[in-house]
Specification:
By secondary structure, the protein is an all-alpha fold. It is 80% helix and 0% strand. The radius of gyration is 21 Å and the shape is globular. One of its GO terms (cellular component) is plasma membrane.
Length: 436
């Protein structure tokens, strides 16, 4: 029996895995149903669509930047299983608000005045939900798993997350928006009950006073966490990766509609290919490293990712225009001569990305003491979210400056070079630490 097969049969891993799976599924079902509906049914301008997609991404990310320090303190100083139950109960209320916004938009009632603000408010609240759940899903692994199981557990969580993203993304593109509104509430209910099955995970240090000042606590958390060179380099490299990912995810819906003349189902297909690729990359790197936490393959992986982004840009650039024609459905799109190369480029981007980022997350939970893992993940989330907000602002700024959305892809390719350099520095720091 492999480590992965063994883990999914145990109560110390399975309930957390299922809860994370459902949370990621719900995030993406809701977020993509909202963005695709607004892009394809409300707005009719590439700039407006790109702006809305960037605003939605920015709102979801903002709580990570502001509240991750508080989330990390709570996760390290309180029982993580109890926090999961509170967070998943809040998700039910959030999805009731978001579902109401989706239904109002579907009915055409006060779409811009009420429905869109409700949907965006729920998205912001889901960002808060994910901010408090984020440190726990990784920090609880070294507490419940044996040392030789942590990388496999991290890989399973990452792969499962992207499979859930895949499922949520597929449904968001294919089911009616009113069905999605009910689906997000039902999923939140199931997630709450699965979260209640997570075994207790009491704090491994004595309870300390919580610092509720989000600015001073964030700065102190980052400063204390990044004193370890390997952790610092891993956090910076992960942040650059997610900046690239943010720019790509913002671009997919308006790019599919305005550059490729494709329907929302095709935009959903792009996200599906990305999710499949991340899952493949997550499991592949675990097999290559044989359970050892190492950044050995990270520089090469992200260089390959950048090459695939450049190839994706080239295919989009050669894509023939279809002015005045109806948007292509999936079957019509797949029949286009350049469709398969385009999808293979997307798959390559994601596989290489998964191989780059999974070992870096494992660094964050294995290099530091187990009593500090949640705060380490929280510090990572603060820096990551700041980088992703920068990515969102870059996308908005480039659109406002009149840069064609297809040319914005080159920004992501260029940033992969920086990520490769950071990955190389991390690998050097890793080897130096082992030599001591």
């Amino acid at each position: 029996m492999t480590t992965s097969t063994h883990l999914v049969r145990t109560r110390r891993f399975l309930p957390l895995f299922v809860t994370q799976l459902l949370g990621a599924f719900n995030d993406n079902l809701y977020k993509n149903a909202m963005v695709l509906y607004v892009v394809y049914s409300v707005y009719n301008s590439e700039a407006a669509e790109a702006r809305f997609s960037a605003i939605a991404s920015g709102l979801f990310i903002l709580p990570f930047f502001l509240l991750s320090a508080l989330a990390g303190q709570l996760a390290d100083m309180r029982d993580k299983a109890k926090i999961i139950r509170v967070v998943k109960a809040c998700e039910i209320a959030i999805m009731l608000v978001g579902g109401t916004g989706l239904v109002l938009a579907w009915l055409g009632l006060e779409v811009e005045q009420v429905a869109i603000p409700l949907m965006l408010a729920a998205l912001l609240a889901m960002g808060v939900h994910s901010t408090f759940f984020g440190p726990i899903k990784y920090a609880i692994l070294p507490q419940h798993l044996h040392d030789g199981e942590v990388l496999a557990g991290t890989g399973l969580v990452e792969a499962g997350t992207y499979i859930a993203i895949l499922a949520g993304t597929i449904l968001a593109g294919w089911i009616p928006v009113e069905v999605a509104a009910g689906g997000v509430v039902v999923t939140a209910l199931i997630g709450y009950f699965s979260g209640r099955q997570v075994p207790p995970a009491p704090p491994m240090i004595e309870a300390q006073k919580i610092d509720f000042n989000v600015f001073t606590s964030s700065w102190r958390l980052i400063r204390n966490t990044t004193r370890h060179r390997q952790v610092f380099m891993a956090i910076v490299a992960i942040s650059f990766f997610w900046t690239v990912g943010t720019v790509l995810f913002i671009q997919f819906p308006p790019l599919a509609k305005n550059v490729l003349s494709a329907s929302k189902e095709v935009a959903s297909l792009f996200l599906v290919m990305f999710s499949i690729g991340i899952a493949i990359g997550s499991m592949s790197i675990n097999a290559l490293l044989k359970g050892t936490v190492s950044a050995r393959y990270s520089p090469a992986s992200v260089i390959v990712m950048g090459l695939f982004i450049a190839a994706f840009h080239q295919v989009c650039d050669y894509w023939p225009a279809h002015p005045g024609m109806p948007l292509m459905d999936v079957a019509t799109f797949i029949a286009q001569p350049l469709a398969i190369p385009l999808l293979l480029c997307l798959l390559g981007i994601a596989v290489a990305g998964g191989m780059f980022v999974v070992p870096l997350y494992a660094f964050l939970t294995t290099v530091v003491d187990k009593s500090e893992t949640a705060r380490t993940i929280a510090a990572n989330n603060i820096v990551n979210s700041g980088a992703m907000v920068v990515g969102s602002l870059l996308a908005v700024g480039l659109s406002a400056a009149g840069v064609a959305i297809v040319d914005q892809l080159l920004l992501g390719a260029a940033m992969c070079v920086v990520s490769a350099w950071l990955g190389y520095l991390l690998y050097r720091a890793e080897k130096a630490a082992k030599a001591v």
